[in-house]
Design brief:
single chain; flat
Length: 523
């Protein structure tokens, strides 16, 4: 902005010195100044845009993924800035002093635009290198991020630095165009990164446990509690095996580590008991055993069972375990019933909360819990009875619906039968009408054929009679007869042939359709 102000001030001075010129010269000078200012502003806008792109490139780590190419883009930006500053400081460019100011401004603007174009080209190429690196080394970057997430940089500082340096080398290979080399070296790097991941996870989950195991070894506690010590080592080995095979199976690892921590605490307590027993003199053995028996008796009293101290300790424990199992079974049943009630949408929220509070209070004292569960079971039985009543009502409703549906089905079947009967009657009537038409047509045809046959026969008989008469005349002429005797003419009597035309009688028998037996019964 200061440079632009300086330029405008120079333009203002030029305008003051031009007051003595003619109005035409003044207008020309103003036009040139306006043109120069336009060139200067356009160059400034393009330069500011490039500056923003350079800043964005730094945020997107172009200096890391494509350092050499990005450095060239920054250099082109610096060249464009230098030209811009030169023209802004001197009021003219230093390219060619024999050119006019306007021509020098135009040339300076063009030089700035060229530098900016080269810078954008380098930036584009830098982004292309970055995309190649991110796609080629995607698994490596993902593994590196996970190592950082689980704390590898703090736990194994030197090893993580070496891994990071190898990742940087792969990025540099891609920047130099050696993508295949980066891919080859990435395979070994991923193996080493996974090994570091296993070590880090093992330290996070088993670090404190391993320290405690080392302390036990130092104090030689395994000598006094060998069985508990073996159980602890087995639990630790199991957790370590899961971590080695599946270091990201957090749920399984936590379960295994928790078991190992349980065995560690168990070992400490057993070691204390062994140490206390070692320090106990033989004359106090009875007191030691009675103290342990008193603890067992306390548990039995809390479970509301009879005094079983007249039994062996193992039988005392068995009796207590049996009672505890019975109570646990009842609690499980009650809990299932409570959960069922909670899921019932017909229960109000207030009733559900009341049941929850009641169940929670039962956990304070097992004896009181047992009594409360008896009451709760009674209430649940009532609920079940109510549900049974509802089921009976639903069953009755279902049977009524089925009866209605059965009645509708019978009515529908009768309607179908009536429709079928009606259609059959219509078909019979149609067949009857068709048969009558065919009978009439057949009678007319037979009558016509009989008449034609009678006429033909009559003509044939007449023709044969004439032939016989002619034959008789000829025979009479040949015979010799007396002159006096007068010959009688032969009279041919045509016999009329009467042919009786047979009467053709066609009787149409009316078809009778019998209704189905079921329909008759219904009627």
């Amino acid at each position: 902005m200061k440079t632009l102000t300086l330029c405008l001030a120079c333009v203002g001075l030029s305008l003051l010195t031009a007051c003595q010129s003619t109005s035409k010269d003044l207008m020309t000078k103003n036009a040139e100044v306006n043109q120069q200012t336009q060139y200067f502003v356009e160059a400034k806008i393009s330069l500011d845009k490039l500056k923003q792109d350079i800043s964005q490139g730094r945020k997107e780590q172009l200096a890391y993924f494509a350092p050499s190419t990005f450095k060239k883009a920054v250099a082109e930006f610096d060249n464009a800035t230098e030209v811009y500053m030169d023209i802004g400081k001197n009021g003219a460019s230093s390219f060619n002093v024999f050119q006019s100011d306007t021509e020098q401004y135009l040339q300076a603007k063009q030089e700035i635009i060229n530098y900016i174009a080269l810078a954008h080209q380098k930036l584009k190429f830098s982004y292309s290198i970055k995309d190649t690196a991110e796609s080629t080394l995607a698994e490596t970057f993902k593994q590196q991020a996970f190592l950082s997430e689980i704390g590898a940089p703090k736990v194994f500082v030197k090893d993580y630095r070496k891994i990071s340096a190898r990742v940087d080398d792969l990025v540099e290979y891609i920047d130099e165009g050696q993508v295949s080399t980066a891919q080859e070296k990435q395979t070994k790097l991923l193996i080493d990164m996974q090994a570091l991941e296993v070590r880090t996870v093992r330290y996070n989950y088993l670090g404190q446990l391993d320290s405690d195991i080392a302390y036990i070894k130092k104090k030689r506690l395994a000598k006094y509690v060998p069985i508990s010590h073996k159980q602890l080592l087995a639990a630790r080995s199991h957790a370590n095996a899961i971590i080695t095979a599946t270091p990201r199976a957090s749920a399984e690892i936590k379960v295994a580590v928790k078991l190992a921590e349980f065995e560690l605490a168990h070992l400490y307590h057993i070691a204390k008991e062994v140490n206390a027993l070692k320090k106990t003199k033989s004359k106090y053995y009875e007191q030691y055993l009675l103290a342990k028996e008193a603890l067992i008796h306390t548990v039995g009293e809390s479970l509301a069972i009879a005094d079983v101290r007249d039994l062996a300790m193992n039988k005392q424990v068995a009796a207590i375990a049996l009672q505890a199992g019975t109570i646990k079974s009842k609690l499980t049943t009650a809990k299932a019933a409570v959960l069922a009630l909670q899921s019932d949408s017909n229960q109000s929220s207030a009733a559900t909360e009341s049941l929850r509070a009641e169940f929670k209070s039962q956990l304070v004292n097992l004896d009181a819990k047992y009594d409360a569960l008896v009451i709760e079971n009674s209430a649940l039985n009532k609920q079940l009875q109510r549900k049974d009543i509802d089921l009976v009502r639903l069953q009755a409703y279902k049977e009524a619906v089925l009866q209605i549906e059965s009645k509708h089905a019978v009515e529908k079947e009768l309607a179908v039968q009536v429709q079928a009967t009606k259609e059959a009657e219509q078909k019979v009537l149609a067949l009857k009408a068709k048969a009558q038409q065919e009978a009439l047509a057949l009678a007319a045809k037979v009558k016509l054929e009989a008449q034609q046959a009678a006429l033909a026969l009559q003509a044939q008989v007449k023709k044969e009679a004439e032939k016989k008469a002619l034959a008789l005349q000829a025979q009479a002429a040949v015979q010799t007869v007396p002159v006096s005797q007068t010959a009688e003419p032969v009279k041919a009597i045509a016999t009329k042939l009467e042919v009786e035309t047979p009467a053709v009688k066609v009787e149409v028998v009316e078809a009778v359709v019998e209704k189905p037996e079921k329909e008759k019964n219904n009627n």
